[in-house]
Amino acid sequence: MFVIKLDMNIAIVIISIIILATYCLTIIVFAIAFASKKIDNPTPVTKQEFISIIIACRNEENNIKQLLDSLLQQTYKGDYEILLIDDHSEDKTIDFAADYKDDRIKIINLPAKKHGKKAALRFGVNYAKGDILLFTDADCVIPSQWIELMANGLLSYNVDMLCGPVVFDDSASIFSSFFKLEFMSMTGSGASGFFIEQPFMCNGANYAIKKDIFTNNINNLNEKYSSGDDVFLLHHTAKNGKVKFIKNNNTTVITQAPENLRAFFEQRIRWASKTSGYKKTFAIFTTTILALTSLSLVLLAVLSLFLPAIWEVLLIAFIAKIIVDTFFMIPVCKFYGQIYLAALTPILQIFYPIYVVTTAILSLFYKPHWKGRRIS
């Protein structure tokens, strides 16, 4: 019995080392890809296309003004419309939006039988006049060159979908820096996937797509999951067309960070719940290796309580992960102009494996709230 138990422990250690080595190799590839990718400066196109900006909103009275102010101050010389699809807001979101006396802003109410972001986006596209669609979220602030660069990029690079960078704002939470760093690791990984021609993740707060591509893929948003309108659309578009990530600070959208730890976990559980719907091989690989790496570190930590010899393995694994993750986060944080956050990577690693494992487990049965609703 002792021999079997010992062999099992050894097997766990060996498997953990293999998983960690795979993770480290993946992150090193991501780091090199991100650091070596030059800044994109799309060639201005001669014809200024009519652009439709589609935004699903629900209970955003505290954010809608800063979004609209930023969208109305764009450098784009062509015409564009801002379609606000109201998902049955219970506050003054629409009242505040209606105060703007600007013909570019159009408020569309989602029918009573429809609800949720995916339904709102699909409904809003029906009213879009432009052949180019830009998507962002109602709690964002948009850089002044956003429309210009995203439209030029989509056309000059001749792609079907163009995804852009997103970063958290400075929240009042004492965990603000760690929220931002963790989010940068996600957006940086997603961008790196594009750079190695394996796009697997993007953010719905910042992407442009040709209208016909969106409508052709509208049934592939996977209605089973309330989250993932962006990722599922990316996977299907990449399968049959061309996609790209634009690495340019002037396209970086600023989105609202979680207010506290509970809001952070609610958001991450919501995002994690959609991963079971992935069909793209590389997306499955990256989410699986991330979860297994965190699980391996947790198991090694537990084993080390009973087998002191495991401490050395755990320490080596922990240090290796810190080094690799820091190697990746330096160019990512530098791109976002917040290089100082990379110094927090070792501290984040203390809690990161537990956070990932906990989020993965909770996403299997816990349905978090969002905007006053229990999501699926």
Can you describe this structure?
By secondary structure, the chain is an alpha/beta fold. It has 2 domains: 2-37 and 280-365, no CATH class; 51-259, Spore Coat Polysaccharide Biosynthesis Protein SpsA, Chain A. Helices cover 50% and strands 12% of the residues. Strands 3-2-1-4-8-6-9 form a 7-stranded mixed sheet, sandwiched between helices. Strand 11 (369-370) and strand 12 form a beta hairpin. Helix 1 packs across helix 10, helix 10 (281-304) crosses helix 11 (310-335) and helix 10 (281-304) crosses helix 12. The longest helix has 35 residues, at 2-36. The protein is globular, with a radius of gyration of 22 Å. It starts with a helix and ends with a strand. The relative contact order is 0.15.
**Separation, N- and C-terminal Cα atoms:** 45 Å
- Taken in chain order, the helices and strands follow as HEHEHEHEEHEEHEHHEEHHHHEE
The gross shape turns out to be globular
Q: Indicate the CATH class of the largest domain.
A: Alpha Beta
Query: How big a fraction of the residues is strand?
Result: 5-15%
Instruction: Provide a count of the helices.
Output: 12
- Architecture of the largest domain, CATH level 2? Alpha-Beta Complex
Helix percent reads 40-55%
Structure keywords:
single chain, 376 residues, alpha/beta, 2 domains, 12 helices, globular, seven-stranded mixed sheet, disordered N terminus, Spore Coat Polysaccharide Biosynthesis Protein SpsA, Chain A, 50% helix, three-stranded mixed sheet
